[in-house]
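Justification of resources, computational component.

The compute hours requested in this renewal are based largely on the per-chain cost of generating structure records like the one below. Each record pairs the submitted sequence with a full structure-token output. That output is archived, and it is also reused by downstream analysis tasks.
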Amino acid sequence: MPYPTVLRENTWATTSGWGNGYVRLPETHPYYGADYNDIPVEVHGGLTFGEHLSKCPIFNSGFWVGFDTMHNIETRTSWPKERVQAETENLRIQLEALAKPEPIERIVPTQFYSVLPPGTKIESTDVYCLPLERWLRPVEVFLATKEQ
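The structure output for this chain reads:
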């Protein structure tokens, strides 16, 4: 289910863009409760809000992050409601992507068998935890050491 979003019109500042966009993070999100400056997203003007709200008539209880369109160059023409809505959706997608785990690089041991000369005995299993390109170098060093 997508993260909840809120659009808030700048009724108090009519010389700025239409409004601000916010996204609520679930408690399981890795950036839940973090300083908004530490959240690695790209959104118009950067994040300018990050607070845990519990008794607010506009927002449901939770941790919300957002951006605004109240910079000197914004107008209601350059930042209408539709553009704020699209940028809020962009923010939501980025935040949801940050919550997905990074793929883990898996090594298939058969990748290594043809690299070793027949009869070579590996005394440490540590090298099996490295990606192939990093694994080859320790084997070369290991073989050179064994031959001396």
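The chain is about 25% helix and 15% strand. Residues 110-147 form one domain.
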